[in-house]
Amino acid sequence: MPIDPRFADLEARTMETYRRLMEKYGEVPHIPRREPMHELISTMLSHRTTQKNEDLAYQAMWRRYGSWEAIQNAPMEELATTIEQAQFPGAKAANIKKALARINEERGEYSLDFLKDWPMEQALEWLMSMPGVGIKTVLPSEAHAKIVCRLVPNQDPAKVAEAIAAHVKRVTPRGVTVNVTRPGFTADAYLMPADHWGNRATSEVLVEMYGREPYYVRTGGSIPVCTLFKKQLGAYTVNFAFGLDDERAHSPDEFFRLSSFRQGQDGYCVLLHRLAQETVPSK
Predict the structure, then answer these.
(1) 3-class DSSP assignment, residue 71
(2) Distance between CA 93 and CA 74 in Å, rounded?
(3) Which of 8, 19, 33, 59 is the most exposed place for a label (fewest CB within 10 A)?
(4) What is the distance between the alpha carbons of residues 41 and 50, in angstroms, rounded to a whole number?
(5) In whole angstroms, what is the distance from residue 145 CA to residue 135 CA?
């Protein structure tokens, strides 16, 4: 496969960098940072949280129970409370208990040492079959990326996906194999007229709450149901939310101010009353 001219010397530069690092530091032996069972359970705890919180949750769990058997037999709510430093402790507690039970049932002990004797593909498949473990958790010699595109009106999702796949293929360096797999679902961009009666009602509520006119912007999001409602019901969807930028929604350190929560409660009550008073234009 021909290489894009922009990356013609990439392989040579990479190998030269490797040569200089070897010359300077020598070969660094691969030393596992943690015992395999510790690594597995800590990785399960690490989902959507910080490394600090993952470690705090693990240490609290181990101080309280002191063995894998005790953790497996711990009451669910108690274990979830113990690891509450990690995000979503209830789901993680359930997965940890299921994983420990399966390992002990299949192997007769709480150990993953048997995996070192297995072919990599078989070991990867086994690990990925564990509850709470997916392809982003186990990366022995592969890298995986999920690409999400925020479309603008009149863009065709299928054509966008084709363009991305073609670009990835075009810039893939020699010696690297890349597979592009498309999900079984897409969503068209959603655009609502700024002067829609639902937006006007919402604007009046926001003016009443904040004492100033709202500022209209187009923004990225992943709410496919808006398009479905428009296509199937012929109805637009008004998005009425109170999250602030610094609350970092969907990030590991996300939070939501109680003041925003209260404003949302008040705002929705006022908005529902206002919408009930609207005369909906006929189609």
Answers:
(1) helix
(2) 10
(3) 33
(4) 15
(5) 10
The predicted model scores a pTM of: 0.45
Q: 263: closest CA among 215, 199, 206?
A: 206
Task: Tell me the residue type at 156.
Answer: D
Place of tokens 């430093």: 85
Measure the CA–CA gap between 89 and 21, rounded to whole angstroms.
Answer: 42
pLDDT, tens digit (0-9, with 9 covering 90-100), for 194-205: 889 989 999 999
Q: Tell me, what amino acid is at 189?
A: A
In a domain, 134, yes or no: no
**Is residue 116 domain-resident?**
yes
Tokens of 107: 């192997």
Residue 251's domain spans which residues?
197-277
**Backbone φ, ψ for residue 195 (5° rounding):** -95, 15
Residue 268: CB atoms within 10 A of its CB come to: 13
Contact predicate 17/220, CB 8 Å? no
Domain boundary among the residues 84, 100, 128 is at: 128
Q: How far is CA 159 from CA 35, 164, 170, 190, 245, in A?
A: 46, 9, 16, 17, 31
